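The data are quoted verbatim here:
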Amino acid sequence: MTQSLKIGKLPDTTPVKHTISVEPDLDNDLKTYAAIYEQTYGEKASVPALIPFMLRAFIASDSGFKKAVRAAQSS
């Protein structure tokens, strides 16, 4: 059974360290997402490697953000 995730398979990248603090429930969700990613694509991806792609997917799907950017660019 193939899973469908919001982000596709990660490209080969050189990690850049980012430090953030998250609440325990979000930490659990991120670890679960990483486990499902591994089941889906057969490759491990660490939570820090996934977060930039999650953020990119979130921003790309945020219609309010897109609208605000267009409004700022037209001003």
User: Anything to note?
Assistant: The helical segments are 24-41, 47-61, 63-74. The chain is about 60% helix and 0% strand.
